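Late entry, written up from scratch paper. The run itself happened at the end of the previous shift, but nothing got recorded in the book at the time, so transcribing now.
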Amino acid sequence: MKLALIGYGKMGKQIEETAIMRGHEIAAVIDPYVKESRSLMGTEIEASFETTKNLAKADAAIEFTQPDTGIDNIRDLSRRRIPAVIGTTGWYDRLEDVKRIIKTDGSRLLYAPNFSLGVNIFYRIVSCAAALMDSFPEYDAGGYEIHHNEKKESPSGTAKILVEKILAAMKRKKTPVWDTLDHRAPLPEELHFSSLRIGAVPGIHVAAFDSSADTIEIKHTARNRGGFALGAVRCAEWLIGKECGGVFTIDDFLEHI
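Output as recorded:
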C-alpha cells in the first residue's frame, strides 16, 4: 500500500522504516518542522499542489503529531476520505465531534493511545488480574509509569487507559488519583497512579497489587519505538481492508485477530 505520514518525528521515521520493510511505499510525508527527507515534504496538508497530489495517491495515512493539530489533521484526511490511523493523543474529549466528521464524510479512522501490540496484550492481562484481585481485599492496587523527559503528556495516554481497565475490573476501586495527593493518604476507593519523566526511557508501565505479605507487579517495558510502529502499520493494513466507514480502535483490530 501507499502510505502518507503526517508527522515525521522519531515515530514517523520509525513507521517509515517499518512500512518499507513490510513492502509498502511512502507516498507523502508532511511535517512543518522537518527540512530534509527523501520523501516529498509539505508544511501542512494544504501546503502545495504537489503535496496534495501525492497525498491523493495514499491508500492510508498514519498521523503522529501534537494534540493541538490532531483534530485539524483528522478533519482534512476525512474530507479526502483517506483511511487514517491516529497515534496523536490529547484530543479524546472531542471524540464525539470526530465521530460526526467521519460519519458525514463516510471515511474511516482508527485511533489508539498506544499502538504497541505488547501494550495492548498487557492491558488484557492486567484486566484479568484486577478482576481476580477484586475478590481479595487484602491486596491494594496502584501503579506508575516512566517516560523520557521530552514527553509532554503526563500521565501518559497509555496510563489513562490502563487505569480505566483496572477500574472497570475492580468494583472496590472507584476513582483515579494522579501523582501527588496534597499530603494525604489515598482513600480505599481511590486508585493511585503516578508518573516520572527522566532521561531517554521509551516507556514503562506497571500495575501493582500489594498486601502486607507480598507484592505482585505486572510490567510492560518498551525497548524502542519498533513495537509502536509495527502496530500502527498493521492497523493501517487492516483499516484499508474495511469496507464500512466509521471510527475504530485497536481493540477492534485485536478482536479481528
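The first strand starts at residue 2 and ends at 6.
(Scratch paper discarded after transcription.)
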